Amino acid sequence: xxxFEFADCPTRLQLTATPxxxxxxxxxxxxxxxxxxxxxxxxxxxxxxxxxxxxxxxIAGAPSTNPREIELTFEPNAALSFEIEARVPAGTPPQAGSxxxxxxxxxxxDTDFVRGPAVSFEIQPWSEKxxxxxxxxxxxxxxxxxxxxxxxxxxxxxxxPSSPGSPTEFVGMxxxxxxxxxxxxxxxxxxxxxxxxxxxxxxxxxxxxxxxNGDLTLYVEPGTRIVSTPAAVSAAPGExxxxxxxxxxxxxxxxxDGTAWAPAYDWEALGGWAISPVAATAANGTIDVxxxxxxxxxxxxxxxxxxxxxxxxxxxxxxxxxxxxxxxRGDELNLVVIGTDAAMYRKAGQTxxxxxxxxxxxxxxxxSPPATVSWGPSRIDMFGLGFDSSxxxxxxxxxxxxxxxxxxxxxxxxxxxxxxxxxxxxxLAGIGMDGAAYFKRYDGSNWVPNLTDWTRLGGExxxxxxxxxxxxxxxxxFGVGTNGQMVRKSGDESGAxxxxxxxxxxLGGSFVxxxxxxxxxxxxxDVFGLSADGTVYQKTxxxxxxxPDGDGWSRIDGLSTER
Length: 563
Hints:
By secondary structure, the chain is mainly beta.
């Protein structure tokens, strides 16, 4: 049940031309009420629909880095009001448009949210600007004088080298072409930098700046704003695919072919409308992606190495809450979800997931999304946090089902991450109630330290870490600390950790939420972090080397954040 309801929100926004005629503006007051008997934090978001542009809207009081979102704290059963401001720039074609408001609980973003009614508006025809008055005669005289001066000094100018043209010629160009043109025109040290959102096509130059030393900066329209931690998979050595939910709730993809990311400055829109983060798995050259839609059904798409892909999202009958989990054992694809009764359910298929409503009930009662892993061709292990915040495991080996859930102990504040560092091995990590990371492994015969105890690894975290194995017996554990920086700890099959049992290697950055990581090649792992402005950053660890080194990170949209 949602914690909020819209108490008052008009469904029509009136736009009026500004006195200068450079825009049409309007304001809309709305109020949202908490319907739970406790204090609750919520995030209000403006979601444009159709051809409406995100940069047309802002919420009064929202930060400039994210003007369409504002965080509010509601007292028990109390209402709060806020104001939506719309500004449509001159030249926008006259048309009807709309947007919606969404309120999401900060504590449960997967299931605790409510969408408001569609708010419509009408962009009116633009008034023609008056024609400029005739120029004064002195301008013609100035032109004649300039011609005379040019004739007299023509010989001298011909002896000088050609100089770059006006940098404003690059405005509106695609960034890659603009950089090539700037170099050809002999501008000094041209660089593409992420500029403020201007409503232009992502990856196009919106403004330029020429420094006193001659350096040219091209400010580029940033790409899609991402609001969920990407799902990272590798379907072939050196290749990476990221899938994430954008601010408009569509699902987006970005592909790395071993050399460059594509699309270069944005994400590929895959459609859909997701209320959960995306889950993905890759095996045998096939990538499968799932997410929960607005109707709480699971939707599935696949992408194959030969270029074959499902054209649309396939709806799988049934109702699910929380982020689903995907895992392959051999050629069998397994989808595991939490139902509305808090129990776990499983559906499997050989080449695809059957769309019918038959699910295998796995029982249990869980408060976290499921986690799954396969450490062999016939084995699946499934995990979930129970109502006591302890971790539970159930496995399927061939046709044999363990038939029940076994407690692995621990008391966790967020979902546990799982990996397999080798045949018959399980590796688990989670965040305890003290904010530190805890670890447990199964070595093929025994649980270490034992069935219900965990090894404390230290650190201070607010959300779940991510665990990945980049080579047999090797593990990398990543997490975002309470200061927003990414940290790392590496381990091996002996149980030793580097830099030590409780210390962490600081990788820098400024991130929110959960990291993503994938083993994309022999002894290589790529880790990704999501910044507060919806930008995804990458760091590669190959052998003992990091790229970028130190605390540096690379934007995957190809832009710099500063000169």
